[in-house]
Write a structure and sequence with these properties.
This is Small-conductance mechanosensitive channel. Keywords: Cell inner membrane, Cell membrane, Ion channel, Ion transport, Membrane, Transmembrane, Transmembrane helix, Transport. The protein is of the alpha+beta class. It folds into three domains: 81 residues, Helix Hairpins, CATH 1.10.287; 49 residues, SH3 type barrels (Roll), CATH 2.30.30; 82 residues, 2-Layer Sandwich (Alpha-Beta Plaits). The chain has eight helices and ten strands. A five-stranded antiparallel beta sheet has the order 4-3-2-1-5. Strand 8 and strand 9 form a beta hairpin. It is elongated, with a radius of gyration of 37 Å.
């Protein structure tokens, strides 16, 4: 039993001895690697703070220059991610990874990712075009690909809209560029389009006069380019008038609702009937 104990302990003692010798011989190397790893972590930590500070400073500077909020957020994202990649390369080079190799690997990976994520790259390219051509800015009310809402921000890959009922809609930038864009806020004035139907027995000249006076009494309606009131169609159950006043863009919906109600009340007061869809049936007696 004593001999077996000695046989078991001998390999263990030898292993510990070899480990101790290896640590003694390579202590400088281990210390160097440890310092490099700690340095790399510090570079990542401090670099991330610096990157955020620089990107934030750029955003503040652009805001001071009264640049559009959507454009500022787009540039802020590009600056932040670009600087972080530089910090990451610096951290890897600190632990002994060759920078040229890292760049080559990033290039190869970028090519592979680019082929796999062509949609994302097209969204990025479309975001650059949106920022460059600026078909809309932050706060504009737009319609893009059948979605209507106020522009909240233009990000690297998507545009964020807020609908009138306070829902967030994320539209890929490629879809924004690839579809018609209707910007309701670009111009200072907008035209309201009403279609008012009256009965065939109504006095058309009187109807036109009543509608025009009703609109002229609203101070929010612009004098120029003028108010259009005219017969546009002889429909099945009514004579349709087109009513087109001009207003300031920010007052569009308020005036839209108010004028529609005011016209109805004015026509009722004058005894001018607004008919509902109906069909007249004539019976002829045959002997």
């Amino acid at each position: 039993m004593a001999n077996e104990s000695v046989d078991i302990e001998t390999p263990l003692v030898d292993s510990l001895s070899h480990a101790e010798k290896w640590l003694t011989n390579n202590s400088d190397l281990l210390v160097q690697y440890g310092v490099n790893i700690i340095s790399a972590l510090l570079i990542l930590f401090i670099g991330n703070i610096v990157v955020k500070a620089i990107a934030g400073s750029v955003a503040k500077l652009l805001h001071k220059k009264k640049m559009d909020k959507a454009v500022v957020e787009f540039i802020h994202g590009i600056v932040r991610y670009t600087l972080f990649v530089i910090v990451l390369i610096a951290a890897l080079s600190r632990i002994g990874v060759q920078t040229a190799s890292v760049v080559a690997v990033i290039g190869a990976a970028g090519l592979a990712i680019g082929l796999a994520l062509q949609g994302s790259l097209s969204n990025f390219a479309a975001g650059v075009l949106i920022v460059g051509f600026r078909p809309f800015k932050s706060g504009d009310y737009v319609e893009i690909g059948g979605v209507a809402g106020s522009v909240d921000s233009i990000q690297i890959f998507q545009t964020i809209l807020t609908t009138p009922d306070n829902k967030m809609v994320v539209v890929p930038n490629a879809s924004v560029i690839g579809s018609p864009i209707t910007n309701y806020s670009r111009h200072a004035t907008r035209r309201i389009d009403h279609v008012i139907g009256v009965s065939y027995g109504a006095d058309l000249k009187k109807t036109q006069e009543v509608i025009r006076k009703t609109l002229e009494a609203d101070e929010r309606i612009l004098k120029e380019p003028g108010i259009t009131v005219g017969v546009v169609a002889l429909a099945d159950s009514s004579v349709n008038f087109v009513v087109r006043p001009w207003v300031r863009t920010e007052q569009y919906w308020d005036v839209y609702f108010d004028t529609l109600q005011a016209i109805k009340e004015a026509l009722d007061a004058e005894g001018i009937e607004i008919p509902f869809p109906q069909m007249d049936v004539h019976l002829n007696k045959v002997d």
